[in-house]
Amino acid sequence: QKEVEQDPGPLSVPEGAIVSLNCTYSNSAFQYFMWYRQYSRKGPELLMYTYSSGNKEDGRFTAQVDKSSKYISLFIRDSQPSDSATYLCAIPLFGNTPLVFGKGTRLSVIA
Amino acid sequence: DSGVTQTPKHLITATGQRVTLRCSPRSGDLSVYWYQQSLDQGLQFLIQYYNGEERAKGNILERFSAQQFPDLHSELNLSSLELGDSALYFCASSASGSYTGELFFGEGSRLTVL
Lengths: 111, 114
Known about the structure:
The structure holds two protein chains of two kinds.
Chain A: E1 4-6, E2 11-14, E3 19-25, E4 32-38, E5 45-51, E6 54-58, E7 61-66, E8 71-76, E9 85-92, E10 99-101, E11 105-110
Parallel strand pairs in A: 2-11
Antiparallel strand pairs in A: 1-3, 3-8, 4-5, 4-9, 6-7, 7-8, 9-10, 9-11
Chain B: E1 5-7, E2 10-13, E3 19-24, E4 31-38, E5 42-50, E6 53-57, E7 64-68, E8 74-78, E9 87-94, E10 104-105, E11 109-113
């Protein structure tokens, strides 16, 4: 199993929809979980960052970690066309290894 | 604007050739990372430098090499290029060597090998 797996989509939703993006990971010892957003022809940028389990909210975005299932999610409420991008989950496997990224899910929000 | 500058933005070359990609990190950032992004493999870590020293190595081919200079800019050298090397190459920087910190990515160098 790969360390981080993510459904590449693409995912197309109407404006205003709730979007759920997901990743699974291989090792229950992982503690830090990140979501990066990548617009077309741009580099990824950090969107959300969570430590351990639970939820973290930032405006319309909520990051959720379920350590028992080794599952992380990013929810986008009231999605907007400007949210159209590729969303990548990322995990530093352990303290001494750089970030491993999921393949990214391409999201299109249609007005 | 992340503050990370990559040149060139686009590069088209032939198989067997050698190219050099350049990265200037954000002011003050000591760590530079190189990632390769392709449709089938996603974003793959290649190599990291911290304050001039190699810190971590990922899935970097022997045909590829990198270095970080005293002014902290970095170069990724790709040689004996193959069609499969066509990809987006990203440089990222961070303030420290900690892997739990935010990475700031440049806009990438798109390499096409014909």
